[in-house]
Amino acid sequence: MERDTGKIRPETHALDAFIQATVERLLTTETRSAAPADGLLFLGNWHDAMPRLIFQDPVLQPVDTRIWGVIKIAAAGTHPTAFPTYKQIARTANVGSEATVARSMAILRATRWLSICRRVRDAQGRFRGNIYALHDEPLPLADTLYLDQDYIQFLEQAQNHAHPQVRKVAAAVLGTIEADLQEGDGGTAHLSPMQRRLEAIRTLQGEASRFFGFSSRQLQNLKSAPDVTPLQNLKSERSSSCSYINKKTTTTTTENPEKSDARAREENTQTPLAFPSSLTQNELRLARICLRNAPETVQQDILDELAGRLLAAKHKNEPTDNPIGYLAQLCKAARKGSFTLTSLGLKAREQRRQEAHLKRLEEISRERALAHMQTLLENPGRPSPDRKSRTQGASDGSAITSHDDSVDGSAINPSLEMQTPTHRTYGPRSDGSAITLHNDTTDGTAISPATGPPDDARERFKSRG
Which one, of 308, 305, 311, 288, lies nearest residue 339 by Cα? Predict the structure, then answer.
């Protein structure tokens, strides 16, 4: 899927190109280089600059900051380097276990200090490694969605992480994103470099800001939450505090089984929503979060309006800068009752219905072809089930079979089906031979054996005899 580059920051574009070059180098570089290489030693003291913002991050713990620094030491400034293993990071950072490294890396990714930009596989589909990007400040959400295609999915899965701190941080990040979506923003708007620097200055001066990706409410909840939360009770606690969590939790409330079965049947019969095909995986997940707060009766209309706007922008060669922000505005208008479907949305709806109709016709044709093939395999030599046969008894005791080959399914008249002359045999004659008469009548009537052949026919037979 081609990604919308829109108003992505130039430095993010440069980073994306650098990542792509790294992927190509990883796929083409042999494990052992045949060419000789020179080495260089620096005999002075190494001095590595550490960003001040990482020490002021309200969520990171000292071990997280230390592990960020160890990864920074392993990185080179001008070319990609091999990512250190968990064992190497644990040894350098002087932490007790590799599980602590995994916990810190999950928190660094959730807070956007670290990004997984690519998962590299070779031509045979074998996994070759991840491409990580380490940042000197929390990456804006819009840029994270562009570089880390699985970021929202990672946050949703991190809510079930083995470590409680990872679960709390992931829940707080998602809660902040949903709060922005409810306000009609979504936090996916692109900030200019100057705006970003002003936010960083306010953060360094101790002013409240959204620089680290947390709202003040979510940050307060994160600070006040207990350090250890049993995993089995986590779902119910998150469901009561954050509305973005799936509401299907297990409780002790009893309900009439007939009502619950009826509700389940009603949910299964609901038509699934059709999302615009141009949305990325991150945008799809954010779109579903947006629609949770919109009336169900207009959810598909909202998506049609978004699809119409994206299609119109594509035809004008003007990509939409912030589709999720636009969707959040539509959902906000729907909650207020002021949402209306424009001509763009109506056109997108008609196109969606036509595509769904054509797809359904293709599915029906495929199902019929498979059923016909299955019948032929199970009953070789038998006529097709679409070709119906009818057997009728003739006056002389023989069977007449008529095949239903008509287009409308009606049976073909057996008397009209016989187009070739028929014959009957009479006899024996006085000399013991048989007399055979051909029925050449145009109306298809048979010659009665009781009356025998007509007189002129008798005369012809006498002359032959």
Answer: 305
